[in-house]
Amino acid sequence: MAGFRDREKQFFPLQNIQDVVKLFRDQLTCGEEPNLSLLSIVLGVIENILTVNRAIPTEVDNSANLEPIFPVVELHTIEALYSKFESHIKRSVDLTKFPGPHATRELVKHVSDVIWGSLTRSFYKDKAHLQSLYSFLTGNKLDCFGVAFGVVAAFQVLGYKDVHLALSEDHAWVVFGENLAETAEVTWHGKGNEDKRGQPITAGTTEKSWLYLNGYPVICTREMEVSSIVSGINLAITTTMDSVELGSLQQELLWLLYDMGHLKKYPMALGNLGDLEEITPSENRKKPIELFQEAIASSQEYYNNQHVYPYTYLGGYLYRKQDYNGALQAWADAASVIKKYNYNREDEEIYKEFLEIANDLIPSMMKHVAGENAARIHHTSLLYNPESYANFLRFYDGICEWEEDSPTPVLHITWAKQLVFSISKFDISVRIGVDLKGENGDGDESEDSEDDENSSGETKDKNQNVKEESSRNKTDGEDGEQNTTKARGRVGRQKKRSVSTKTSAVNGNSEEEKIKSAIEELESKVGGEESEKEDINPNIPDLAKACSESILNPEFLLGAGEPFTTATTTTSVTTSNAEASLDEFLSSKSNGSPFMGMTVDSMLKAESPSDMVNFRKRPPSTFSHTPSPLLDNREGQSETIIPSPTPNEPGPPVILCLHSQKMKGLKKIFASSKLNASAIKLQLTAQSQVHFKHSKRSTDSDFSTHRKRSRRE
């Protein structure tokens, strides 16, 4: 590395965004490797002035009127910091002990120790603006990505060209050696893993690990390493305010790198550029959704579709644009990627991403859609879209499969409650319009066959019991008069059955005869029981008969008057609108069945006839425009959802194959007209009974994560 060259000095001082863009363009097109240390220091100086050391108005209302500024970056400042870094690395590493043209594992470990040993010992995890070498040189602080980048920049200062960054969606390490065949940890993740530095990243480590992307990380070139420090710029001034000038600089630099083709294999950077374009669109540039789709295509083409964030970028964008069907599909696709991994405690960032989607964004989306009257009337919302319902289930199926075989549970009761809340908003016609199948594409046929086998077995057992009881009765009859009387008392109402079963037991042993005898047994039981039923209240059959022939007296429901009246007397009772609506509601002619949509409890709770009209449902020939509400959950009782009327002509079902064990166990409930909320909660939280502390995160933590994944690449 030639150091700080004269050609680079001519670009200083940097007085505006275009001056910085010119410096970066020169570094990327000069024919030599871009100077990582120089560019990182420049960006660090600008970011520090525009965010950390920026004066903020005390009045909240005036914060939006923050005057735009851009710092003047002087040559002597950058040159002094660069010389400090260069001298520190060369003084600390004796290359005579490490001969050879390529870096070795021992050298990588030694350089990472030099960077690590220079850091302050205070704990500053997740603090903002610590990813650049400026932070290292002025405050001896670096975050996880900053340490890995510092190691690569140090090797460039030492003259090595075979050490490069490897980036996952939340971690960084290095690849080195001839053909970049070796890997080594150089930084920490989580709460500090100092002992891992220098260790190789083996296939066993990367298998089903989201932290290492299942062995498909972004292996950077020098130009992509420049892209990583640009993409990692943190725009946050506070938790609620970003730097407009810094955002404009990042956007211009990302477009420069995009035009040169250095973002083609960098999905995270494409997602960041899409976010910036959504905030401040550029003229004659691609739209944000095109950039998000390009990030997904990059992940699919170069990384075996192992990256999750391209889908969450797209889903978040569509959610903000209120394209809820598209957002659900993008989130379901993200869950289809995460299910390839096993969850562990180091996956905190992606867990928080899915936690926000499942427990915040989707429920908020359901509330918003359920309140749109026009969409409910015309059935245009996702609540009436079977494909959206299938994507909703596919999202949770991916989460459940992510949890399977994982050392740490994912789902807890909050997840289950929000699922029940969201799924209850879908119309009944949508739930029954999705054909749910198991992992091998099988529906309920296998379960039905098992039920048939069980029924057949039960029939055989009943027939065998009939044989034994018949033989016992016969033996008791031969023993004497007293025993015969007792036997008659035992069989009593089953006299006819006893005769038939005796004949069957003696004369027939075939399966057909056994089944026939069992049917006759059931018939005799029904007949005998009905013949000896106790007298019932005569008002019940009279009331039922009258309800089918005339109109029920409204006063009777309110605790007074006769149970029913004739149609002529009822029609003359009142002329008010409320009572007329009640008569129409209670009429068997208008509703097709008595007490349509009402229970005794609901009738008794009504304070007036007009309140009772609110319980009315539409006739079966029309859709219900509002989702079925959950019944009150009482302790010890199951929660169900009142089914809505089904459409006359449902469309072809949407076929969805479930893969996770938890979701396959619930497929009948998900496709039924009623939902048992308790069963869903128990199934989803099975072996997942963990409690999470909802402590307030520190200001620094919120500060660093305000812009999604702005630092961790």
Task: Provide key terms for this protein.
713 residues, mainly alpha, 4-stranded antiparallel β-sheet, 34 helices, Menin
| 3D shape | elongated
Considering DSSP H and I runs of 4 or more, what fraction of the residues is helical? 40-55%
Question: How many strands?
Answer: 10
Q: What are the segments in which pLDDT stays under 50 over at least 5 consecutive residues?
A: 444-463, 466-509, 527-534, 566-597, 604-649, 688-713
Tell me the span between the first and last alpha carbons.
Answer: 26 Å
GO cellular component, one term: histone methyltransferase complex
GO biological process, one term: chromatin organization
Keywords: Chromatin regulator, DNA-binding, Nucleus, Phosphoprotein, Repressor, Transcription, Transcription regulation
Organism: Magallana gigas
